[in-house]
Amino acid sequence: MAVYREQSAMPAPASHTSIAGWLHKNLFSSWINGIITLALLYFLVPQLLALVEWALIKADWLGSSRDQCVSGGACWVFITNRLNLFIYGFYPESEYWRVNWVYALTALQVAALLYPKTPYKSALSGIFFIIYPLVAFYLLYGGAFGLDVVETHKWGGLMLTLLLGIVGTVAALPIGILLALGRRSQMPMIRALSIVFIEFWRAVPLITVLFMASVMLPLFLSGEVNMDKLLRAMIGIILFESAYVAEVIRGGLQAIPKGQYEAANALGLNYWKSMGLIIMPQALKLTIPSLVNTFIELFKDTSLVTIIGLFDLLAVAKAGLSDPAWLGFSTEAYSFIALVFWVFCFGMSRYSMYLEKLLHTGHKR
Question: pTM of this prediction?
């Protein structure tokens, strides 16, 4: 009688897992790919070396004036000297601790919600979407608990950019879901209103929406109502973004097989239960790449608020460059801003890829 013993899996050959194996597979798999790789290295390596030399090796990092920039490389003294302006805008220096608390609380809650194994995630979600906005508002604006009022025209820099991006993303997602469901509704009035809303906001540039929110929106309000400029910009961004989110969600709903709808009906579920428990989770999973791409675009478009007088990260950099003592350092300023945007956008992109793999259930072929 033959006896079969379970054998452990053999490790992959070193030719496939080593650096040489990776280079052969990805860069030198054929003579054509090898020539292309060498040609690109010939043109790119000198440029990269020059960039590293300018940005790191010969760069000046610390100082109090442009007189410390004498090495011929990048003058990061401009950035370090105005770092508080980039991070806090024109927020009073004595109140920086309030912004720091908002930064810390936001980072902790976002990390807890994004981590798949966090316990009591439902309770944390309720705190983040209901309680935390009030806490963050009173920390930043003040007017309660003995905190001094800091008007929104003093908000700026990275704080304002993150505020617009997070509020726009969090508020636009549920509105977009409702609009997507409304566009696919069997009720003609709801479907017509949803289509008109979506097509109107998608056909208007965001820069026009911001102008309308800043200039025209107060005309539709009574004279006794004085709506803050930042609040008007947020409303415009949310309405604009929700239209794009609605179309992304609608594409996910259309990708769900008809059998899923029939299965929900066979279980005796009503419309909202079938959407909330069966259809919408699958649609959201399918639309992760498109949704994240939309949110990344929104985060980058927040820089447009500078046209209505709000000093986001880009506007603060422009204000710093207008200082006669720091003229001529636009390359360093825009490089720093590009790096900040890249870090946040790349982080969102990588997390979406991780989430796709985590939720992958074999629907791909």
Answer: 0.84
